[in-house]
Each structure stands twice: as structure tokens, then as C-alpha cells.
Design goal:
globular; about 140 residues; about 45% helix; mainly alpha; two-stranded antiparallel sheet
Amino acid sequence: MIIEMDTRMKHTNEFADTLTKEQRDRARDMMARQFAELLARSPDENLYWNESTTDLIDLSHCVYMSEKLVDGQGRPSGFRSIVKRACDVLHVPVPSNPYSMAFNARNRKGVRQTSLFSRYCWLMYVRQDSQPLNGMIKRMKNEE
């Protein structure tokens, strides 16, 4: 018995790849809006990132590429400034080379390491979660 393999068949490992362009665009807009709200928070609010540092850098890069965050002069915010602010607000050490981390996050392979954007889309469309980033953040209580 001979089994033929169709090498042209692409196996999709990313949930986001199964969505329409409009759905992906909507998710990117929502993610950028929610991330911008998060960056406007104060580090004194004791918010902590629950996912990996690579995921936070992946999120920062995705929002940076969307050019939806602008600085005080109306220009798109720089990647390094977005990373610094995100790390400050979420109490994560700032990586020495966030560009390298973003590159590595974009080139993840395998089902076990899907992109943060794909997981965000899954939470948004399958779980019907209107604020997917909220589950990735926890608030620590002040001990006073």
C-alpha cells in the first residue's frame, strides 16, 4: 500500500490564520486599544504580567507595528519606548535587546508556542472574551 503525501497542503497551527482579514484587523485594533489603556495605567496600581516576557514583547511589537500608539507629537511611538512603558507598568524587567526577543517571538514554531496574537484572537472569538488581556494580568494587593 502506497500512501501519497500532498506536500502542497499547509497545516495551520495558528488560530489567527483561520480567521478572515476583517476579523484579524478587528482583533488587532481591539488589542492595540486595550494595550494603550494598559500603558496609561500607573505602576503604583500593582499590575503584574502573568505570561512570559517573550509574550509581552510580542504584544508590544504587534501594537508597535499597528502604529496605533502615538507620542505627544502625534508620531507613532517607538518600539523601545512601548516596551519600557509596558515593562514599568507590569513590573517586568526591561530586556536588554527587545528587538531580538520580538524576532524570536515572531518565529515560534509548533502548536505549543503559538503567537500571542493568535491566542488573543482565540480568546476573543471562541471564548467571547471582550477584554482578553485582562486574563493575562493580575493585580497584587497592597499590604498596608
